[in-house]
Amino acid sequence: MTPVPDARKRRTAPRLLWQTVSYHGVMLLFAAIFLLPFFWMTISAFKTKAQIFADHITWFPNPIQWQNVVTLVTRDDFPFVRQFMNSVFYAGSVALAICFSCSLAAYSFGCLRWRGRNFVFILTVCALLLPGIATFLPTYIGWSKLGFNGTYVPLIAPALFGDAFFIFMLRQFFLGVPRELLDAARLDGASEFRIWWQIVMPQVRTALIIVGLFAIVYTWNEFFGPLIYLQKKEDFPLSVGLFTFQSGRSKEWPLAMAGAFFTALPMVVLFLFTQRLFRQGLNSRSLK
Length: 288
Known about the structure:
- This protein is an all-alpha fold.
- It is built from 14 helices and no strands.
């Protein structure tokens, strides 16, 4: 006599297979929808203007216009390489400043005991409810009075004062650090700064990488701040430089598409190499 569990497995196996195929099919469909604009931008970067606006759709450039890349990096009216390095400097500086300032604040909220800590933390979280545009005008006037307009100081310096979202995120990881480890370090005479740097920071390394990656992606695509504070074309990051080039009279769409492709490519490569850290950091609150 055939056991009942074996018969039940035979009945449910086709159903599970159909559910798996359906699930992956839907996911592939949505992935294709989201990747289609990026694919169209990529192939347009290696086409001529006539091929881009042809009556019939060509899914692959024929022939491939490698000259678009050479023209992109040698144009005098579009300093692509200079603006690319500006974006690297801007994003990297903000990420380092955010990791430094937010980790200090999160260490205070998560690992130290002081009167009014919870109240101050609530005020910090409430800062998330305040839209940035509401404080932009007085901030802009303040930097103008200090004479820093036209530089990267107004764009990088605020990161040294922390960010409410990243402070909240890091605090959740800092709460997972064993308090016995901190108390033992204090008994040995270690200062709070040394405990933060040598004991706590290695424990939350994954969280710091996640915060740095979020800061890089946000800053790399930041448009409004650099557009307002920077005036010279040579000082623009790619987010602003590409817009000013595309909005010119020439409307050179192949070069604009090539610039957009090489602007998006670093973030795609960065995500491909760090997606494991994203999953690890978002699925766990702390490291053992």
